[in-house]
């Protein structure tokens, strides 16, 4: 893999949401069944998502991040034992990966919305996926919730189910698609219509994580996972490809 280190991420939310333990517990439980032994995490940030998923061993976990400073923070976490010995952190994007690489699972955890040509991105990484393997997308939901905060941190869009279906490569099938955090969705709508804040405060994040997310874990099944501030999409590659 050829590394690239010219990109500097302009978002400010990674540290802000790093301590959202209830939210991380929620979505990690949802995607856990689709994690294989060889995992590629694209747009890995400062490594907090990888840490949240280190509850079991992996043969290989490759975190790819275009911001070199964030890669150094991940490597520091590896040296401190926050990430497993199977973890690798490199600077770059999917464009820098060898076409000979193969993974059981490819993760886009709050990342795909930052990529302008999302259709081409998914098509490119499909070639890196083992037959039967999964691509897992976690992303902010609903363009009607798009706010100055989304623009500030580099989101090109928020997703609904139709938008994700429209960019699925033909070699993949949708294994699972659902919304998460119905209570948070109502709070986001109120912020858009009333508060119009371009950035949540640490106190707002703590309240959302400790109260709203915990309530959403009870409420979401009652809505049939049809409402939510975030969307999870799991794509599976055909065994016959």
List keywords for this structure.
9 helices; 241 residues; alpha/beta; 7-stranded mixed beta sheet; globular
Largest sheet: spatial strand order:
3-2-1-4-5-7-6
Measured distance between first and last alpha carbons: 25 Å
Helix content: 25-40%
Q: What class do helices, strands and sheet pairing give?
A: alpha/beta
* CA-atom Rg in angstroms: 17 Å
Instruction: List low-pLDDT spans.
Output: none
Average of the residue pLDDT scores? 90
Strand content: 15-25%
Number of helices: 9
How would you characterize the largest beta sheet? 7 strands, mixed
Structure commentary:
With 241 residues, the protein is an alpha/beta fold. It has 9 helices and 7 strands; from the N terminus they run ααβαβαββαβααβααβ. It has helices at 13-17, 21-31, 48-52, 68-79, 118-126, 148-152, 161-165, 182-195, 202-222, and strands at residues 38-42, 60-65, 87-91, 103-109, 129-140, 172-180, 230-237. A 7-stranded mixed sheet has the order 3-2-1-4-5-7-6. The longest helix has 21 residues, at 202-222. The mean pLDDT is 90.
């Amino acid at each position: 893999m050829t590394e690239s280190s010219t990109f500097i991420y302009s978002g400010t939310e990674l540290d802000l949401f790093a301590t959202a333990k209830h939210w991380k517990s929620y979505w990690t439980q949802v995607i856990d069944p689709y994690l294989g032994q060889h995992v590629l995490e694209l747009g890995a940030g400062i490594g907090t998502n990888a840490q949240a998923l280190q509850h079991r061993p992996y043969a290989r976990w490759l975190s790819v991040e275009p911001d070199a400073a964030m890669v150094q923070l991940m490597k520091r976490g590896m040296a401190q034992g926050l990430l497993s010995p199977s973890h690798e952190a490199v600077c770059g994007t999917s464009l820098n990966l060898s076409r000979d690489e193969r993974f059981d699972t490819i993760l886009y955890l709050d990342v795909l919305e930052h990529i302008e040509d999302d259709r081409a991105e998914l098509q490119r990484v499909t070639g890196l996926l083992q037959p039967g393997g999964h691509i897992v997308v976690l992303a902010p939901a609903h363009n009607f919730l798009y706010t100055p905060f989304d623009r500030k941190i580099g989101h090109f869009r928020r997703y609904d189910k139709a938008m994700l279906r429209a960019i699925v490569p033909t070699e993949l099938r949708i294994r699972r698609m659902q919304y998460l955090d119905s209570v948070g969705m109502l709070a986001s709508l109120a912020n858009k219509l009333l508060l119009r804040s371009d950035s949540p405060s640490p106190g707002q994040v703590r309240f959302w994580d400790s109260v709203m997310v915990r309530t959403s874990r009870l409420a979401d099944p009652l809505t049939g996972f049809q409402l939510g501030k975030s969307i999870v999409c799991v794509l599976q590659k055909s065994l016959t490809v």
